[in-house]
Amino acid sequence: MPNCPACFWPPFVVPLPWRHSANQKQIVLVDIEICDATGKRVSQTVKDNVSFTAGKSQSFNVSWTASAAASKGSYTVKVGIFRLVGARC
Questions:
Q1: Collapsing DSSP states into helix, strand and coil, what is residue 3?
Q2: How many CB atoms lie within 10 A of CB 64?
């Protein structure tokens, strides 16, 4: 890949290992966000009703195509794992 800090060379694969540490199966919501250098969210992917088995790893594919107007600089991937408890409204 050429040295081009202003260019995006898709596809990017960013491994985000996460291991479920509970001793039982859980159903969770997985929220994956990409934020620019200012903290502004530029992409969000939500995976609902994801089944995690104790001690097993999960992989998720998320794609994002940067627009020509995308800010130059670093981007951050944030992952939130939420266990659903009780009834939903």
A1: coil
A2: 17
Q: What is the pTM of this model?
A: 0.68
Query: CA-CA distances (angstroms) from residue 25 to 18, 55, 61?
Result: 15, 9, 22
pLDDT higher than 70, residue 9: no
Q: What is the pLDDT of residues 45-65, one digit of tens each?
A: 999 988 888 777 777 778 888
- What the block records as the tokens of 56 is 């097993």
Distance (Å, rounded) from C-alpha 61 to C-alpha 44? 12
Q: At 76, give phi and psi (nearest 5°).
A: -120, 135
Provide the token pair at 61. Answer: 């594919």
Q: How far apart are the first and last CA of the chain?
A: 48
